From TrEMBL:
Entry's transmembrane regions: none
PROSITE patterns xref list: SAM_RNA_A_N6_MT
Superkingdom field: Bacteria
Keywords, in A-Z order: Methyltransferase, RNA-binding, S-adenosyl-L-methionine, Transferase
Name assigned to this protein: Ribosomal RNA small subunit methyltransferase A
GO BP terms in the entry: methylation
Amino acid sequence: MRTLAPHTHNPAGIHLLRDSGAIAKLIATAQPGKDSLVLDLGAGPGTLTAPLADTGARVLAVERNPEFVRRLEKRFADRTNVRVVRQDLRRMSLPHRPFQVVASIPYALSTFLLRRLLGPRNTPLQKADLVVEWGFARRITSPHPRDLDTAWWAARFDLRIQQRIPAKLFTPAPGVDSAHLTVRAREGSRNGRTQQALWGLLATTYASKGAPPLRSVLANLTNGKRVHRLGKGLPTNADELTPDDWATLARRLAAEDVQLPRLPAQLERR
Ligand SMILES: C[S@@+](CC[C@H](N)C(=O)[O-])C[C@H]1O[C@@H](n2cnc3c(N)ncnc32)[C@H](O)[C@@H]1O
């Protein structure tokens, strides 16, 4: 395979992780079991596919570059637990059975893939260990999510940076460092009413101009008597709530006898 010199035009985002320590940490943190289905999205030459396959998990290695696909097919020809899928990540359909993702994803598709994996109410995603651009990881793990998408993901999934991965550990080196980001479902986050409550709270907050007081967000969803009780112990302004706070508030609101808004159609689809 022709290797790219650092900083040449590389629209496909090919940056191969070359550090055995970082790779081992990624796999050890992801802990795939023998019964797990693991998606390696943007598998390249099989950098992560190989150690994942060694765990005994069933691995789907998705890649669109024909040369990488050929190499993957050859490398894993006699591994019954690896399936190479030649597919564009922007068009692939996700499995219906529960799965986890362990992948060094193309930077350019980060938002698209997280939306796809974390957005739907009934996503089959169990957990993910992702290598993403450092700045992207910092933005989506911020204690005060700056947009509705991020707030929706972070209040349902615990998003955490495990380690910084310096650019020099990739070939070719990208212009910026990366992060190992872990995504773990929060307890109770799959409950239908809790998700409706959360959506109602976040959609009201992020549709407002400026930072609305939390009590006006709550008043939009329930009556005056409950507003005070539900907001107890939480910040006064909605933009000061952390993803933990939103998750707590959504559980409280879901437990009340109130009518909650439906989720938008795109969150009902997988
Ligand atoms: C950051 S590299 C990671 C490669 C390998 N997993 C590693 O860790 O060394 C991203 C990979 O995604 C692939 N890729 C980029 N865009 C893609 C797309 N739209 N669909 C499928 N694969 C894509 C690239 O060909 C590349 O192999």
